[in-house]
Amino acid sequence: MMTQSRYTVYDANGVSMLRIEPVRAGRDDAPYECVAENGVGDAVSAEATLTVYEGDKTPAGFPVIKQFPTIRVIETGHTAVMQCKATGSPPPKIYWLKDMKRVDMTNPRYSINSEDVAAELKEISHTLCPKRWQTRAPRSLQIDNSEESDMGKYECVAENSIGTEHTKPTPLYVKVRRVPPTFSRPPEPVYEVMLGANLTLTCVAVGSPMPSVKWRKGVDQDLTPENDVPVGRNVLELTDIRVSTNYTCIAQSSLGVIEATSLVKVQCVPSQPSNFRATDVGETAVTLQWSRPTHSGENIVHYELYWNDTYANEQHHQRIPNTETYTLSSLYPDTLYYFWLSARSQRGEGATTPPIPVRTKQYGK
């Protein structure tokens, strides 16, 4: 770009443009010549004559812009509309400049919206304006799904065979929405699970730009590969949980880092009672004895005693108090029984002991 006072030359991609701003009647009226050369062969040229009119001395039919674009401020992703209406005879064609260069209408996000010209004509037909003004050319520039690159100064240009009219450069500001990360679906503070259970932890975070989301176990064990960190949502699958552990969801963007920690707490049922045995065997009664489970023994509320007999081939069950010995009566004499035992806490029933065989005594022996 070359600038000298009111004259600016733009060169880009083989196109050269001379801009005179502001033009002055009687001073800038002249023929202008564009010369192109590349050192091979003769130079080529093209000539055009510029005629500048005072505002109150324009010829009949000269384009007049009736609606000017206004300063617009939008967020990225929204639609921007730059309004422009012009009159003239013949009806002027309208095109747009951005930062003094013609807007590339091949961009699929850019379009020209034509308003209802018939409605315009009907409205004007009721006025006393001369007929030469009774043709308007409404052409609004619409930019869909706006991006930061759309920001700049836009000009509406109305042109017909009589002349050309420009609006003043009007800024379009495109703001990039910046929102620090926040959790829209954080993990729960505490999850209580049974020993060996599976659990799915889901963490969702939002922001602009969207944050990456990863998981950490304990203090410093990263669970999400650095080369595969998902954006916005991360699901952690835990299997065969054996130990209570903290899991932390971390959401991060250029605007900050936030964390949410969950305690996955293992709530165990009691282990099986130990040293389960028969200490006294009678004709119709058996005394059983055992030791408390080594794990979660302090949480036991009662025991579950199971047995079956080989005489009636039936299985039986009885809930017994929180004790370490129990006498079961009303049995058949001289009958083989199998007994097994489990402990129950508020979390549920634990593992059972292996069945032990016990034969009741015969009558009179």
From TrEMBL:
<dbReference type="GO" id="GO:0007156">
    <property type="term" value="P:homophilic cell adhesion via plasma membrane adhesion molecules"/>
</dbReference>
<keyword id="KW-0393">Immunoglobulin domain</keyword>
<protein>
    <recommendedName>
        <fullName>protein-tyrosine-phosphatase</fullName>
        <ecNumber>3.1.3.48</ecNumber>
    </recommendedName>
</protein>
<dbReference type="GO" id="GO:0050808">
    <property type="term" value="P:synapse organization"/>
</dbReference>
<keyword id="KW-0904">Protein phosphatase</keyword>
<keyword id="KW-0325">Glycoprotein</keyword>
<keyword id="KW-0812">Transmembrane</keyword>
<dbReference type="InterPro" id="IPR050958">
    <property type="entry name" value="Cell_Adh-Cytoskel_Orgn"/>
</dbReference>
<keyword id="KW-0677">Repeat</keyword>
<dbReference type="GO" id="GO:0030424">
    <property type="term" value="C:axon"/>
</dbReference>
<dbReference type="GO" id="GO:0005886">
    <property type="term" value="C:plasma membrane"/>
</dbReference>
<dbReference type="Pfam" id="PF13927">
    <property type="entry name" value="Ig_3"/>
</dbReference>
<dbReference type="Pfam" id="PF00041">
    <property type="entry name" value="fn3"/>
</dbReference>
<feature type="domain" description="Ig-like">
    <location>
        <begin position="63"/>
        <end position="161"/>
    </location>
</feature>
<feature type="domain" description="Fibronectin type-III">
    <location>
        <begin position="272"/>
        <end position="363"/>
    </location>
</feature>
<dbReference type="InterPro" id="IPR013783">
    <property type="entry name" value="Ig-like_fold"/>
</dbReference>
<keyword id="KW-0378">Hydrolase</keyword>
<feature type="domain" description="Ig-like">
    <location>
        <begin position="181"/>
        <end position="265"/>
    </location>
</feature>
<dbReference type="GO" id="GO:0004725">
    <property type="term" value="F:protein tyrosine phosphatase activity"/>
</dbReference>
<keyword id="KW-1015">Disulfide bond</keyword>
<comment type="similarity">
    <text>Belongs to the protein-tyrosine phosphatase family. Receptor class 2A subfamily.</text>
</comment>
<dbReference type="InterPro" id="IPR003598">
    <property type="entry name" value="Ig_sub2"/>
</dbReference>
<keyword id="KW-0472">Membrane</keyword>
<keyword id="KW-0732">Signal</keyword>
<dbReference type="InterPro" id="IPR036116">
    <property type="entry name" value="FN3_sf"/>
</dbReference>
<dbReference type="GO" id="GO:0008046">
    <property type="term" value="F:axon guidance receptor activity"/>
</dbReference>
<dbReference type="InterPro" id="IPR003599">
    <property type="entry name" value="Ig_sub"/>
</dbReference>
<dbReference type="InterPro" id="IPR007110">
    <property type="entry name" value="Ig-like_dom"/>
</dbReference>
<keyword id="KW-0675">Receptor</keyword>
<dbReference type="InterPro" id="IPR036179">
    <property type="entry name" value="Ig-like_dom_sf"/>
</dbReference>
<dbReference type="GO" id="GO:0043025">
    <property type="term" value="C:neuronal cell body"/>
</dbReference>
<dbReference type="InterPro" id="IPR003961">
    <property type="entry name" value="FN3_dom"/>
</dbReference>
<keyword id="KW-1133">Transmembrane helix</keyword>
